[in-house]
Amino acid sequence: MTLKSSLDLHHLLDNMQTFVSILDTAGILIFANQSPTIQTGLIESDIIGKAFWESSWFQYDSNLINLIKQDCEACALGSSVKREIQISVNNELVWIDFSMQASIDNTGEITQLVVEARQITQQKQTAALLNDSERKSHAWLENSPICTKIVDLNFNLRYMSSAGVKSLKIKDINTFYNKPYPFEFYPSNFKQKMLVCLNQVINTKTITKLEAQVIDLNSNEIWFHSTLVPVLNKMNDLDYIIIVSIDISEQKNAEQELKQLNKELEARVIQRTKQLELANQQLKYISETDPLTKIANRRVYERKLLENIALAKRAQQYLSLLMIDIDHFKEYNDHYGHDVGDIALSKVAKTIESSLSREVDFTARFGGEEFVVLLPSTNEQGAFEVAETIRNNVQDLLIKHEFSSCLNILTISIGIASLKAEEINGDLLLKKADTALYQAKNGGRNLCHKASKSL
């Protein structure tokens, strides 16, 4: 079953046997599931928004408070912590397997601390009882829901509790005694992992843990969290090994559902991100593009002008500006209609753009029938040559204009302004180009005119 809502997610977390909480990097608790293992008797207001070490679980021991605080500080610097500790739950001390580690985002920054805790009181009690009295412990083990096994130093099975026999669907456990463990019907990868753990216990005489999947005799999958405990004799030599296994299949199923939910959420986030990126691209295009001619608008020109002025001053280069106006365009619109006029405007715009040979050259619709062209690192003569190319290319379109005073086709006039790096000023450059355009029109139109040096 796939979880479909945050409510389902919280329900899932709250029914996990593992306590999960999230702290900020200052150690303040910002989330905790309602795991019955740890939080019995507490409500959210008791713990959320408070320093983790101030929780009632640790208040019985000032040394433990300081230890948890030091753990938070260490993990906030990138360390990880894992240990077994005792905490107070409903005025009772319980053992937990406690771990804390830093959560790191894509940039490598530590953003949160993740705490996990699983109660291991029963495992501790089992080990203590076995050392204290085999007779007393046997009755407890046989009635415990925990699967407990004893293996000798040759890894032969000497004992398995009723919970294990039931979980693995074993009809007669006696047929497995004094035979190698792990069982032959277990998956090969589990057997390899378990043998590594058994050898580690023998070599180090320390408790080792393993979380892995097995199958029962009916081929059903079971997840076990196993703790391997070395039992030492009075000479401090290893006598045998106890394996305490807890069925965590429900927890693993919940984790798989959570993983699937996270995968679905991640896919949705990726899809939404792509949609937002596309929307931003479209918005950027709309905000920077003239809707009629499909070239840049005046807003982009003003930004490009400032950028090119800064570049010209740094590189000590010329910057040239062409101011372009379609000759007698009002008469063209009046006689041919605005729809035809819009088509002519678009053709002129595309011709201006295609006449520019360098990627750094830039054109935009300035307004109405006026266009501008920015030519970085271009002196007056170079700008004049570009202007003439544009003027001739527009003329070659042979757009009919019977009401023009210069030719029977659509033409343009161009004003040219060029300034050295030390002279460059955006307003001055535009004023010089605009004045040159005015002079081109007064000179008979269909002309390119250079700005006067004296302006």
Shape: elongated
Can you say what the CATH homologous superfamily of the largest domain is?
Reverse transcriptase/Diguanylate cyclase domain
One letter per element, helices H and strands E, the order comes to HEEHHEEEHHEEHHEEEHHEHHEEHEHE
Second CATH tier, the architecture of the largest domain: 2-Layer Sandwich
Low-confidence stretches: none
The averaged pLDDT comes out at: 89
How far apart, in Å, are the first and last alpha carbons? 79 Å
How many DSSP H or I helices? 13
Determine the strand fraction and express it as a percent band: 15-25%
> What number of structural domains do the residues give?
3
Rg for CA atoms: 40 Å
Number of strands: 15
List the helices and strands and how they pair.
Blueprint: H1 6-14, E1 19-23, E2 29-32, H2 44-47, H3 62-75, E3 80-89, E4 92-104, E5 110-119, H4 121-132, H5 134-143, E6 147-151, E7 157-160, H6 162-167, H7 188-204, E8 208-215, E9 221-232, E10 238-247, H8 249-288, H9 298-315, E11 319-326, H10 329-336, H11 338-354, E12 362-367, E13 370-376, H12 380-395, E14 412-419, H13 426-442, E15 448-450
Parallel strand pairs: 14-15
Antiparallel strand pairs: 1-2, 1-5, 3-4, 4-5, 6-7, 6-10, 8-9, 9-10, 11-13, 11-14, 12-13
Helix pairs in contact: 4-5, 10-11, 11-12
